TrEMBL record:
Protein name, UniProt field: Uncharacterized protein
Organism field: Arundo donax
Taxonomy, superkingdom: Eukaryota
């Protein structure tokens, strides 16, 4: 029971972190991209 709960929590956390990471990469790319691309 406890293991299943922790497993579910870790999946949610990993999903959240990966989503935030993707957003961060997009922001960095936009910030560093030359203005000609916009």
């Amino acid at each position: 029971m406890l293991y299943e709960y922790l497993s579910q929590q870790s999946k949610t956390i990993v999903k959240y972190i990966s989503t935030q990471y993707q957003s961060l990469l997009v922001l960095i790319h936009k910030a560093t991209a030359p203005t000609s691309e916009k």
